[in-house]
């Protein structure tokens, strides 16, 4: 099954939104926010590479 570049771009947009929302978590959740943002960033890098490979 192949993922289209459009689907990858939508996934990247969703990951960016997750990163923004993680930054909006209350201070008591700061550690969780960093973990969420880091995971989203890592997946964003991987998907970015997939987009380059699909092009």
Automatic annotation (TrEMBL):
This chain belongs to which protein, by name? Uncharacterized protein
Origin species, per record, is: Pseudomonas asplenii
């Amino acid at each position: 099954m192949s993922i289209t570049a459009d689907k990858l771009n939508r996934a990247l947009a969703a990951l960016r939104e997750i990163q923004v929302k993680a930054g909006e978590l209350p201070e008591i959740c700061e550690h969780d926010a960093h973990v969420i943002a880091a995971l989203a960033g890592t997946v964003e890098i991987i998907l970015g590479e997939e987009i380059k490979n699909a092009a």
